[in-house]
Amino acid sequence: MARRNKHSLDEIREMVLDAAETIIINEGYAALTARRIALEIGYTVGSIYMVFANMADLVMHISAGTVDDLTEQMCQVPHYAPEQHIADLARTYVVFASRNFNRWSMVFAKDAEPPEWYQEKIGQMFGLVEAQFAQLAPNHSAQQGKQAAQALWSGVHGICSLSLTRDLDPVALKDAEDAVVLLVKSFIGGWVAGLPSCTPGHADAASFGD
């Protein structure tokens, strides 16, 4: 436990974030309270509200860190043909959600409208998928690709929500990965076929690796 009056506001802010995230990782969001955080860092509850507007603000910043970590991992996915790349992004999303289940579960569970800076982080993550749809249909509008990416990722997120638990066994995780790859393959095949016209040279939407 830290000693009071030995830290700057910036240091207290980081202590609050670290303590809150540890509680969430180990016990889940339901265990997170201002009193519990204060006990962990050795400061009063009022000290938390010196560095965060309220608990919702604190939770938003914790979730933002999770989004940053997820986006970083998705950025590291090797680039192949767009269809394969989207499938690999989906796999990465599932694996991250499984390994960081309590943190991931909070990302989209917001009681209030997320601030603009948070929405921008979500947009950066979706942008990785949207860029691949833009390659699939370079002669179509960016809005079409954006809508397709968001629709597909709603399905990927839904599979995670239905399939994942905190203590998921390897077989169940593999089943979830296979499910999102099947979803990606089916969605892209239907989306490309439904476009007004297909540009010659597009990769075959069925050309997925194992």
Structural overview:
The protein is mainly α. It has 2 domains: 44 residues, Homeodomain-like (Arc Repressor Mutant, subunit A), CATH 1.10.10; 131 residues, Orthogonal Bundle (Tetracycline Repressor, domain 2). 70% of the residues lie in helices and 0% in strands. It is built from 9 helices and no strands. Helix 1 crosses helix 3, helix 5 packs parallel to helix 8 and helix 5 packs antiparallel against helix 9. The longest helix is centred in the C-terminal third of the chain and has 25 residues. 27% of the residues are buried. About 4% of the residues have low confidence.
The description of the largest β-sheet is:
none
Total helices: the number is 9
Structural class: mainly alpha
Whole-number count of domains: 2
Helix content: over 70%
What's the Cα radius of gyration?
20 Å
Shape descriptor reads: elongated
From N to C, what is the helix and strand string? HHHHHHHHH
Query: What CATH first level of the largest domain would be assigned?
Result: Mainly Alpha
Strand content: under 5%
Examine the secondary-structure arrangement and name the CATH architecture of the largest domain.
Orthogonal Bundle
**Regions with little confidence, pLDDT below 50 for 5+ residues:** 198-206
Looking at the structure, the CATH topology of the largest domain is Tetracycline Repressor, domain 2
Number of strands: 0
Mean pLDDT: 89
Terminal residue distance: 49 Å
**CATH homolog superfamily of the largest domain:** Tetracycline Repressor, domain 2
